[in-house]
Amino acid sequence: MKYWLTFNEINILLHSSFSGAGLVFEPGENQDQVKYQATHHELIASALATRIAHEVNPENQVGCMLAGGNFYPWSCKPEDVWAALEKDRENLFFIDVQARGAYPSYSARVFREKGVHIEMQDGDAEILKNTVDFVSFSYYASRCASAEMNEHNSSAANIAKSLTNPHITRSEWGWAIDPLGLRITMNMMYDRYQKPLFLVENGLGARDEINANGEIEDDYRISYLREHIRAMGDAIDDGIPVISYTTWGCIDLVAASTGEMSKLYGFVYVDRDDLGNGTLERCKKKSFAWYQKVIASNDHDLD
After folding, report:
1. Does the residue 89 lie in any domain?
2. CATH number of residue 162's parent domain
3. Is 201 a catalytic residue?
4. Residue 64 within any structural domain of the chain
5. Which of the following is catalytic: 59, 86, 201, 209?
6. Cβ contacts of 213 within 8 Å, gap of 6 or more
7. Looking at the domain assignment, is residue 226 inside a domain?
8. Residue among 9, 86, 90, 281 flagged as catalytic
């Protein structure tokens, strides 16, 4: 085993604090203070784990993991561009520390305006210098932001609040289907960190139905994955080193974003509904054989 990750989708701590970090807030508590203090503990733990992994075996490669997807500005209005930049920084803050080894310069103002004071122990700054070897991330959708986030229709289904982008299609749950957004995200992250990338989650949540022949023809999932793999290939052609690509996921399970079994991602169908009823019988979807072919051809056969 050579490749390791410290925290999965570490930035989800800010958007879904209990599922992301087990945080429970007391009445009247400054939630931002709690979130960012917990973040500091996680960043210290990540840096310590990275240091230990390198000490145990110098060939170990340790990465961070971001719930990725760039924010587009709603318009070219400067206020919207700034809002999108701030939303990107909110997520990239974690990776800025893990990849660069120190708190970014913009964090001082963020903490001041949110009334946050990070309690640091002696030696913490030195520990943070144990940076990761690569940046891994999940990508399901791009996002969109404006200076007035309530002004336009938003997609409530996303864990990270996003406006509905009128220029791209969406899944049944309101997630933007944006392969070019993957290429944009990958270029941004490599320009920012100059570290190899590892796309560890990519997939489409959809309702799958068994037809009269007992088959699941999930061409919509095949189309989604095909176009995102092509976009990743374009990013590689842009000069970005990519370690690997893995989908989410192999087998159907309860979706973390909604708690539903009906929002399915896998290549293998599981007979179970949102209320827990079903036989748990498994069957392969059409996408199973397609992805098997993609793997065998090392993505040269995407048809």
Report:
1. yes
2. 3.20.20.80
3. yes
4. yes
5. 201
6. none
7. no
8. 9
